[in-house]
């Protein structure tokens, strides 16, 4: 049996290139499935659209669809933004207060998205608000996001992620972001989402002045 060092030495550039290509293909397939799903939802409604129709439009089999998205709800509620947000948060200076760091991380993460990507987020958010089954899944996703952010903040500050201070801070961040998202949807994206989110987090950072 080869040692880890031996395996590392025998891993060739071509092997790494194949792995990278495979990951890019998987990401492309996932993106295509989601794009076609959002198009069909807009054209014929969420409830009227089947997984089979989405798979056909994306030129994949239904079984392939389920490898990427366990349910139809997941094609709306799942995204790849958490790793981006975590990367931006880790890039914040160590001495920066946690709320300031979170605000800067959210602003940088959303500003890095192009117009097309933000249009997809807007479409998904509209669905998540309007479809009852998706609202329930969205709430589940929010709890997962709170856990993720609590862990990241606790790591930065050397605190317990389950401490009331950490959980309250992260909960407050999520709380002020929700009205910003609702405003964005009501305005049909007229005011850029990064602007609305940064404004909301700025109010929180200032102590929520009225």
Automatic annotation (TrEMBL):
<feature type="domain" description="HTH tetR-type">
    <location>
        <begin position="27"/>
        <end position="87"/>
    </location>
</feature>
<dbReference type="Pfam" id="PF17754">
    <property type="entry name" value="TetR_C_14"/>
</dbReference>
<dbReference type="InterPro" id="IPR009057">
    <property type="entry name" value="Homeodomain-like_sf"/>
</dbReference>
<feature type="region of interest" description="Disordered">
    <location>
        <begin position="1"/>
        <end position="28"/>
    </location>
</feature>
<dbReference type="InterPro" id="IPR001647">
    <property type="entry name" value="HTH_TetR"/>
</dbReference>
<dbReference type="InterPro" id="IPR050109">
    <property type="entry name" value="HTH-type_TetR-like_transc_reg"/>
</dbReference>
<keyword id="KW-0804">Transcription</keyword>
<protein>
    <submittedName>
        <fullName>Transcriptional regulator, TetR family</fullName>
    </submittedName>
</protein>
<dbReference type="GO" id="GO:0000976">
    <property type="term" value="F:transcription cis-regulatory region binding"/>
</dbReference>
<feature type="DNA-binding region" description="H-T-H motif">
    <location>
        <begin position="50"/>
        <end position="69"/>
    </location>
</feature>
<keyword id="KW-0805">Transcription regulation</keyword>
<dbReference type="InterPro" id="IPR041347">
    <property type="entry name" value="MftR_C"/>
</dbReference>
<dbReference type="Pfam" id="PF00440">
    <property type="entry name" value="TetR_N"/>
</dbReference>
<feature type="compositionally biased region" description="Polar residues">
    <location>
        <begin position="1"/>
        <end position="14"/>
    </location>
</feature>
<keyword id="KW-0238">DNA-binding</keyword>
<dbReference type="GO" id="GO:0003700">
    <property type="term" value="F:DNA-binding transcription factor activity"/>
</dbReference>
């Amino acid at each position: 049996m080869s040692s880890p060092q031996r395996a590392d030495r025998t891993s060739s550039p071509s092997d790494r290139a194949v792995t990278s290509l495979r990951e890019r293909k998987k990401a492309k397939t996932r993106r295509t499935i989601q794009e076609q799903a959002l198009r069909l939802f807009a054209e014929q409604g969420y409830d009227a659209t089947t997984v089979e129709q989405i798979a056909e439009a994306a030129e994949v089999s239904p079984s392939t669809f389920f490898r990427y998205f366990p349910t139809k709800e997941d094609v709306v509620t799942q995204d790849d933004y958490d790793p981006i947000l975590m990367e931006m948060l880790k890039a914040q200076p160590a001495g920066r207060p946690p709320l300031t760091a979170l605000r800067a991380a959210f602003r940088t993460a959303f500003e890095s998205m192009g117009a097309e990507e933000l249009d997809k987020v807007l479409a998904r958010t509209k669905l998540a608000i309007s479809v009852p089954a998706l609202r329930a899944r969205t709430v589940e996703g929010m709890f997962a996001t709170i856990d993720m952010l609590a862990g990241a903040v606790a790591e930065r500050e050397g605190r317990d992620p389950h401490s009331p201070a950490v959980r309250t801070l992260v909960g407050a961040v999520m709380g002020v972001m929700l009205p910003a998202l609702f405003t964005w949807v009501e305005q049909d994206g007229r005011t850029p989402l990064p602007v609305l989110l940064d404004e909301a987090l700025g109010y929180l950072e200032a102590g929520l002045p009225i």
